[in-house]
Structure formats: structure tokens, C-alpha cells
Design a protein that fits this description.
Chain lengths: 425, 497
């Protein structure tokens, strides 16, 4: 291996390291006192205190005293969790869904420039708009980080994780590379699922060859490659297992094919959607593949993936598969993430697993170190809830991102303010 | 004598039209005429009386005891009893009612009982699962006015979505055509019983409905297909359609009058003939020619007559006002607006016009006309006296309308609007029953009403609560212990034991 071949990897690694540094937070410490605090899955403290300073959780426990000068939040009767993380989100990319000028990173089978279905070089980091109207609404729903992810085509592109505090800089980019199988991927390959897998294999093979000898590629001494240079470059972190390959797949055959590809190319994958993943639970558990799913998506909507189980999250969890719960790309619906988790509980998933599925599990999947729990030293993404966060009747009363209390104002709260009383006529 | 009679009867008929025939040349009595044979009633409606919804001889006797009963009629009974018999509610109350012999007795301790959920906006059966072009039966997107189309004709009773909706406590739904068209066609009110045919799924006696849509969707669909391309032309097209329908209705009315006169003359002539001793026939005249049937105008004329409940898909406040202007000018009433995310902005107008609103708890922002949706919409409407419902327009959302009502209630309360559980429950029961015109027989738990009942594992306002027993018209349509009934399509499914 020549040193120059490591350069892109090094860039990614350095970028990731910088991304881990929390944004400089307000100087005043915050103490949430007397709350029920879910520190992490399986660790819940009653009547406890959480202390935040300089962007981090500096203490959490019972019988803690708020430090002098701290802004104190009365947590009596409240529930405190880590901020919610949607592992596949449209927030920041999809503003107004039906207005193309407002949408980024949603591809058809082909793009206009290359007439091909491979968008590996697309970076959500560049497509993300922190001023998207969905950002404050999602934040009001207790989301503190979203993985803004592209969709469509066969290879959809690179996602990026963003904190929802209005900042334009990602928490981590790229967060993952996304592939869409099923009707989208097949549509990109002449309508054939089998061919879409073949294209994926060829692409990974080309990317590996490209990564091994860029000089030969530059001299035009390589065979014809399936994708453009930037696409091949974007696949390197996947081949080096620095970021996961998130495979959107619903049918059992597609999921099994994805597992074979992962094994053959030694890449780390996760399954998104996973309508029939419950049928492959044993294999997914053995391969340590995380499944991102929407537990309410129980309809046999896709003719190729019609065996959808109402209790899929619980079945997968029981089989040892790590389950993340996600809106799977929604923007305006982002705030329903906790309701999705609550419905998974109603369908057999343990409550603390459901909370983990919208906090620590997606954070771990994308390598968002320091996020997803409230352990000492964690980045202070914290939500104070009026009650059980998975209930539909509760609300996020205080949202803290990187140690900073966020505004919960949005387009919607302003409309309510304006129309709470009608103008007299 | 006959000449005098003739002049009196056919004052305006020139003599040359009197032809010597005993039978009219053209005499079509059905289906244009009613049973009296003298007035246009339009194409035959499935006009069973609504009271048919209250009787099912095969329904079991069920008594649920000890449950918390929320009636959606202002009452709550802790440890109450409800008795269902022959498809209707026999008793509901606090006391332990005598349970009829042979009744299936259900221990309701710790459970909640509510009326069956009613969804005023669904496309199940016309946009069935799985998604396939072959299942696209909800939008006749070949022209902006397809008032002749009926959701009933496109309804597939084997849609796997139906049983899943039942598992969420739904007992009744209004199946609507989509919103591609300005006037998409008739809706279809169904009960959630497993059915082989659309007729079996039909809610007995439910009045006819029609689906209309304003705003972005018809523009998007027809902008490049001959229009309407703009809202300007949309509202013109509504007026044009109803203008034509009014002419059609007037022609029908004129024909009806002429036909009635002709019938009278024939009757009188018959009497005169019978009285004659010479046995000679009296010269008759041809029956008036009927107006050629036009099924589009049949629907629209029904709207103008007030026989058909008008359901309008509309998002923006200003567009609801535009639609109200159309209705006022053309002479019909709007039963309810659907989606109506900006209804809160004109809630005074809607209350004044007594127009109901069907909306979501927290959908918004997926298109520009949905940009100003707020979670307090339903609560603000309720506060202003508007009949509000939480609808689904989604085969996923329909499975948890109770959660959606709870969200809308919670949002209202946070805004300082007092929405008690009965009001929130009405959003998914009594109020949609009103929208569908079936509130006389269902939507609340009251003696004499249809046995549309849900037994919940706990408070229906919790995300963790599941419907345990769902009863539609006295028949159990979902039992949590048995799971969701597989449709024929799913019979060899890996989930089916």
C-alpha cells in the first residue's frame, strides 16, 4: 500500500475527529434537578440531577447539588433523555416534499447529467440546509441530531449527521453511504433485482481496483469503470469499513443478497426498511447487522416484500438483531419518531430498547461518539419531557443541544400565536 | 267532452302532436322514475333505510361488564356495563344490567370501551395493498369532472389494509375517490366486516356522498392535460359543472312534470273509455321524451337537490372560502372540508356555515398548500364550535386514530384550550358519523344505536393501548387474541400459521 492511497482515508479520519468536537457552548452550566433520568438503556435514575457544563454532561446521579451559578431546571415530575436521533432523515434536505426546488438528495432511477443510477459522490453535507423549516419543528419533537440521508437510484449517496441547533457544519460527514435496492434499485437496472445486485458488486469491485491504483486510473490504464471518479472515491471509506453501507431493502431476497455482498466485499452494512427482515433475523444477528425500521409500517405494500410482520421490531430484538427506529427519510414527519418507538413497545419491544432505538443505537451505528446517552462526559444533547417521551400526550419542554438550551419557536408556534384569537371584523 | 278535457290537460300542446296510438312510442319507466312513476329520482340509489344498520339477527348477545365506558355522548361510566343484542346496543350504563341468558360475557375490568372509530377519509379498497398499477382504482384521472365514478365500483373487499384498520378499532370508513379531479365521484361508506362483495361491505342505508378537490392536485394532474392549469380555472370549472347540472336538473324536472300530466291524461282517458258504450278507443298522445341520462349530472343534480353529502378536499383558508362561494352561488351545501390544514384561520366562517372539518393531528408541510398546518387545528375548531374530526387518509394512520386524537387533544391543552376526553373521542366517532350522515345510528354508545364498539386494553389516549375486541354492527371483526384476519391475498403468507 502506497502512502498516497491512504490520503483520502486520512482526510476522512481527520474530518471525523474534528467533527467529534462539540460546538463551544454557553458558559453557564445547567442543572436539571429532581427528574427521572434515562442515562442509557437499562440505567434509569429517579429523582436525580443532571449537570451540564461547557457542552458536556459533567455529572448525573441522585443527591447531586446544582453547581453555583448554574441555570436550574426543575425536573420534578419530568423525564429526561438523551436527544433523539433519526438515523435516516429528510430534515434539511426535503423542505417541501412536492416542490422540487425545495428538495435535495432524492433521486430517480437516473440523474440528468450521467444518466446512471450511481450517486455515490452526492454528499448530504453539501445538500443540507440548516434553515429548513423542518429543523425547528423536528427539534420541538425532541430530535437533536438527524442523519440527513439521500434516497433513490441504486447508490443514493453519502449521508451526514447534523445537530439541529441551526449549525451548518455536520457532526459527522460522511455518516454512511446509502444504497437503495427494491423497486428503486431494480428500476435503475432495467427492472431486475438480480441485475441491481450485479451492478452493486461491479461497482464495489471497480472501487476496490480504483483504490488500489489511482495512478493507473489517472493514466487511463484501467479497464472501463462503472462509475465516475468521484463515485469511486466516495466508496473508499465503505471498503475501508470507516462508514457503513446502509442498504434500503425490504424483501427477503434483497436482504439476503445484501448480506452476501457484505461478506464478499468485507463491508459493514445495515438494513433500512427491512419489511421482511424478521424472516432473516438469525442471519442478520449472526452478521451483526443493524436494522433501521419504522415499526408502524405493517402493510404488505410492496409486492416483492409483502410479508410484513406487525411485531417485527420485537422479533428482531429477541433474535439478537440491533434495531434502530427511524422515520426512514421523513422531514415534516420527523417529530413522530417517538410515537413510532411507542408503537414498537405496544408491539412487544421493551421500553428501554425502544428508547435506545431512537438514541444510542443510531448514534452508535453512525459513529456519533459521545451522543445518544447521558453518561458523564457525553455531549449534552438533552431533552426534558413533560412525561413518558414515548407517549403521544407528552411534549418536549426543554431541548438542549451541545449544552445550549434551544428555542422551541417554529413557523407553527408563530402561526398559533397569530391565530390564537381571530381578528375582529 | 274529450275536447274540453284535452284542452284543459294539454293547453300548450299543439294538436298535431296528438297521434293516434294506444301506447306511447317511447315509455321507459325505470330507472328514471320513482315508484309512483311521475317524478325523476335519478339513477337508483342503494336506498335502504338507515335503520337497517341497527338490526343483525345473526349477531351474538355480548355483555361487557366492569369496564370504563366512554360514550362520546358526554358520559363516562366507571365499572360500567354495556349489552349488545341483535346488532344494536341494548343497554349502556353504570349499574349492573341484567345480562340476557346465553350472552357472551366479557370481563371489562381495567379495560376501556368506546364507540367504534369512524374514519371520514380513506382510500382502502380503491388504493389497495400491495401497491400496483392494477390496484390503482381511486383516481379516474382522465378528466377533471368524473362525477359518475363511484368508489363502490372500484372497491376491492380483499384489500389486506381493511382488517388492519379494524385491528385499530375502526368499524366504519368513508372510502373516497382520490383528489386528482375537481369532482372525483361518489364516496362509499363501509363497515369493517370481512366481505366478499362491495355490497356486503356497504354500511346499510348510509346516504350518498361525493368527493371534490380544490387546489394543487387537480392543477398538477391537468395542468398539461387541457386544464385546469390554475386555481382561476378550477373554480370556474366547478361553476360550469354545476351550471350544466342545473340545466340538466331543470330539463329533468320539466320532463317529470310533462310525464305526470301525461300519466293523468292516460288515466282519465282510460276512465272515459271504460264509460263508453261503443267500446271505441280514445286517441292518445305520445309520452314525453325522457331526458337522456347522464351519470355525471345525476350526481351533481343530486348535490343540488341536497341528496348527496359534499366532501371537499381543501387545504388553504382562502380556498375554503372560494369553495363556499361556489356552493352559495350554485345552490348547494358543503358537508365538510377534508385535510383543511388552515381551517383554524377561518373557523368563524366554518362555524357560521355549519361546515365540518376533517383534519390530521400533525401532518403538514408536504406541499405548499399544507405549509401552515398546526397541531392545534382541531382544538381551535372545536373551541369555535366547528364539528371537527381526525381523519387518516392513510392505511397506516387509520390503525391508530385514537393516538392521533390524543395528540391533537394534548396540543390543544398546551395552547390552553380545554378539550376533555369526550370531545377528543368525538373527533374519531360521533363527529365523523355526522360527516357521513349516519349519526342517527352510530358514533356514540347509547341504547338503541348500532353495536359499533371497541374494547381497549387501557385508555385509548395512550400509545401503549391496543384494541382487544372490535365489534361492528354486533359482529366481532377483530379479536386481539386471534390476530388480524388474513385477506384471501395473504392466505399463504409466512405470517399465517
Amino acid at each position: 500500500v502506497k502512502p498516497r492511497d491512504l490520503a483520502p482515508a486520512l482526510v476522512v479520519a481527520v474530518a471525523a475527529a474534528f467533527a467529534l468536537l462539540p460546538r463551544v457552548a454557553a458558559a453557564q452550566p445547567i442543572a436539571i434537578v429532581g427528574a427521572k433520568i434515562h442515562v442509557r438503556a437499562g440505567q434509569t435514575l429517579d429523582n436525580a440531577t443532571l449537570v451540564i457544563d461547557r457542552g458536556r454532561v459533567v455529572a448525573v446521579g441522585a443527591n447531586l447539588r446544582a453547581p453555583a451559578g448554574a441555570k436550574t431546571i426543575d425536573g420534578t415530575g419530568k423525564v429526561v433523555t438523551a436527544g433523539l436521533v433519526d438515523g435516516i432523515s429528510g430534515v434539511g434536505l426535503v423542505g417541501i416534499e412536492l416542490e422540487p426546488r425545495s428538495v435535495d438528495g432524492r433521486f430517480g432511477a437516473t440523474d440528468a447529467v450521467h444518466a446512471d443510477p450511481i450517486h455515490a459522490s452526492y454528499q448530504a453535507r453539501d445538500g443540507f440546509d440548516p434553515r429548513d423549516v423542518n429543523v425547528p419543528v423536528a427539534r420541538g419533537g425532541g430530535l437533536t441530531v438527524v442523519v440527513a440521508a439521500p434516497q433513490g437510484g441504486l447508490v443514493s449517496g453519502q449521508s451526514a449527521a447534523f445537530a439541529l441547533d441551526g449549525s451548518a457544519d455536520p457532526v459527522r460527514a460522511p455518516a454512511a453511504l446509502h444504497v437503495t435496492l427494491g423497486p428503486s434499485g431494480a428500476g435503475a437496472a432495467g427492472g431486475s433485482r438480480g441485475k441491481s445486485i450485479a451492478l452493486l458488486r461491479e461497482l464495489l469491485d471497480d472501487a476496490r481496483a480504483f483504490g488500489r491504483d489511482r495512478a493507473a486510473y489517472e493514466r487511463n490504464a484501467k479497464r472501463r469503470m462503472l462509475a465516475d471518479r468521484l463515485d469511486l472515491e466516495a466508496l473508499q471509506p465503505v471498503l475501508q469499513r470507516q462508514v457503513p453501507l446502509i442498504v434500503d431493502a425490504g424483501s427477503e431476497p434483497d436482504i439476503r443478497a445484501a448480506l452476501r455482498v457484505a461478506k464478499d466485499f468485507n463491508v459493514r452494512i445495515a438494513i433500512a426498511g427491512g419489511a421482511e427482515a424478521w424472516r432473516v433475523a438469525k442471519e442478520l444477528a449472526a452478521a451483526k447487522v443493524t436494522v433501521l425500521l419504522d415499526p408502524t409500517a405493517n402493510l404488505p405494500s410492496d409486492l416483492q416484500a409483502s410479508e410484513v410482520h406487525d411485531e417485527a421490531a420485537a422479533i428482531l430484538d429477541k433474535a439478537g438483531v440491533t434495531v434502530a427506529i427511524s422515520t426512514l427519510g421523513s422531514s415534516w414527519g420527523a417529530r413522530t419518531l417517538r410515537q413510532l418507538a411507542g408503537n414498537a413497545v405496544a408491539r412487544g419491544l421493551a421500553w428501554d430498547r425502544a428508547l435506545a432505538a431512537i438514541t444510542s443505537i443510531p448514534a452508535a451505528l453512525y459513529g456519533l461518539r459521545g451522543r445518544g446517552t447521558l453518561e458523564r462526559g457525553a455531549i449534552a444533547d438533552v431533552v426534558v419531557w413533560s412525561g413518558d417521551p414515548l407517549e403521544v400526550t407528552t411534549t418536549a419542554e426543554t431541548v438542549i443541544i451541545g449544552g445550549v438550551v434551544q428555542s422551541l419557536d417554529s413557523h407553527q408556534t408563530k402561526l398559533l400565536e397569530r391565530y390564537r384569537k381571530l381578528p375582529s371584523r | 267532452m274529450y275536447r274540453v278535457l284535452c284542452v284543459w290537460l294539454v293547453a300548450c300542446a299543439p294538436a298535431k302532436t296528438v297521434v293516434k296510438v294506444d301506447e306511447p312510442k317511447l315509455d321507459i319507466t325505470a330507472p328514471w322514475l320513482d315508484t309512483e312513476g311521475n317524478w325523476i329520482k335519478g339513477t337508483p340509489e342503494a336506498r335502504r333505510p338507515l335503520s337497517d344498520a341497527l338490526v343483525d339477527a345473526s349477531a351474538p348477545v355480548i355483555a361487557i361488564r366492569g369496564a370504563t365506558i366512554l360514550t362520546a355522548a358526554g358520559q363516562r361510566f366507571d365499572a360500567g356495563t354495556i349489552v349488545l343484542e341483535r346488532g344494536a346496543i341494548k343497554y349502556v350504563g353504570a349499574a349492573d344490567a341484567p345480562v340476557p341468558a346465553g350472552a357472551l360475557v366479557i370481563d371489562g375490568k381495567g379495560k376501556f370501551v368506546t364507540p367504534g372509530i369512524i374514519d371520514a377519509h380513506s382510500h382502502m379498497g380503491v388504493y389497495s395493498a400491495p401497491n400496483a398499477k392494477a390496484h390503482g382504482d381511486g383516481n379516474e384521472a382522465v378528466g377533471p369532472v368524473t362525477a359518475h365514478a363511484r368508489a363502490e365500483y372500484g372497491f376491492w373487499p380483499q384489500d389486506p389494509q381493511l382488517a388492519r384498520a379494524a385491528s385499530g378499532g375502526v368499524t366504519t370508513a368513508l372510502i373516497l375517490p382520490g383528489s386528482a379531479n375537481l369532482i372525483g365521484g361518489r364516496g362509499f361508506t363501509v363497515t369493517m366486516r370481512p366481505s366478499r362483495t362491495a355490497a356486503e361491505a356497504a354500511f346499510p342505508g348510509a346516504p350518498p356522498t361525493v368527493k371534490m378537490a380544490c387546489g394543487e392536485n387537480p392543477k398538477r394532474v391537468y395542468g398539461e392535460k387541457g386544464g385546469p392549469q390554475t386555481r382561476m380555472a378550477e373554480y370556474a370549472a366547478f361553476r360550469a359543472a354545476f351550471g350544466e347540472a342545473a340545466v340538466y336538473a331543470a330539463k329533468q324536472a320539466a320532463y317529470g312534470k310533462a310525464r305526470a300530466l301525461w300519466e293523468q291524461k292516460r288515466k282519465r282517458a282510460g276512465e272515459l273509455e271504460a264509460a263508453r258504450e261503443d267500446g271505441k278507443k280514445i286517441a292518445g298522445e305520445a309520452a314525453p321524451e325522457p331526458v337522456p341520462i347522464d351519470l355525471r349530472y345525476e350526481t351533481l343534480a343530486g348535490v343540488l337537490r341536497g341528496d348527496i353529502l359534499v366532501q371537499v378536499h381543501c387545504y388553504r383558508a382562502d380556498e375554503m372560502a372560494q369553495m363556499i362561494a361556489v356552493a352559495d352561488e350554485m345552490g348547494f351545501r358543503i358537508r365538510s372540508f377534508h385535510h383543511a390544514l388552515e381551517a383554524y384561520k377561518v373557523r368563524d366562517l366554518l362555524a357560521n356555515k355549519e361546515i365540518a372539518v376533517n383534519t390530521w393531528a400533525d401532518w403538514w408541510g408536504f406541499k405548499l398548500e399544507a405549509y401552515d398546518g398546526i397541531p392545534e387545528n382541531a382544538a381551535l375548531l372545536a373551541e369555535a364550535g366547528v364539528v371537527a374530526t381526525i381523519h387518516s387518509d392513510s392505511s397506516i394512520g387509520i390503525q391508530r386514530l385514537n393516538q392521533e386524537a390524543a395528540k391533537a387533544q394534548a396540543a390543544g391543552r398546551r395552547a390552553g384550550i380545554a378539550i376533555d376526553d369526550d370531545v377528543a373521542l368525538r373527533w374519531i366517532t360521533a363527529n365523523p358519523a355526522r360527516v357521513l350522515g349516519i349519526d342517527e345510528v352510530t358514533g356514540t354508545l347509547q341504547a338503541g344505536k348500532r353495536a359499533d364498539v371497541v374494547v381497549w386494553s387501557g385508555s385509548p389516549m395512550s400509545v401503549y393501548t391496543r384494541a382487544e375486541l372490535v365489534i361492528a354492527g354486533g359482529q366481532v371483526v377483530y379479536d386481539h387474541a386471534k390476530g388480524v384476519r388474513a385477506s384471501d391475498f395473504e392466505l399463504d403468507d409466512g405470517r399465517t400459521p
